[in-house]
Amino acid sequence: MKLRARALGLAIGIVWGLAIFLATIGSVLMGNGETMSKLTVFLNGYRVSFGGAIVGLIWGLVGGFLFGALVAWLYNSISRVIYKSEASGT
């Protein structure tokens, strides 16, 4: 079975982007942004605020897409090698 890189990338990107968005909104509403503020090191323009939640959503979409596409490519490459060797009987 071959994984579609764009589909997996988009699925993981949406989930990761929404996770950052919702965690940031939750931190803003609860007034505890200490843990989420550590993301400022990794996400350019991110702050624990409503605007920062949008920035985190965008970065999450991009990073998740790239990660998902990489996982699909790696899976397809490895499975091609494994199943090719099974087909030849070794």
Written description of the protein model:
The chain is mainly alpha-helical and 90 residues long. It is 71% helix and 0% strand. It has one domain. The protein is rod-shaped. The model has no long low-confidence stretch (mean pLDDT 92).
Using brief descriptors, characterize the structure shown.
90 residues; mainly alpha; 2 helices; 71% helix
Tally of separate helices: 2
Tell me the β content.
under 5%
Please outline the major beta sheet.
Answer: none
Tally of domains: 1
- The residue ranges in which pLDDT falls below 50 over 5 or more consecutive positions are none
Assembly type? single chain
Write the layout of secondary structure elements.
Elements: H1 5-30, H2 50-87
Helix pairs in contact: 1-2
Gist of the model:
By secondary structure, the chain is mainly alpha-helical. Helix content is 71%, strand content 0%.
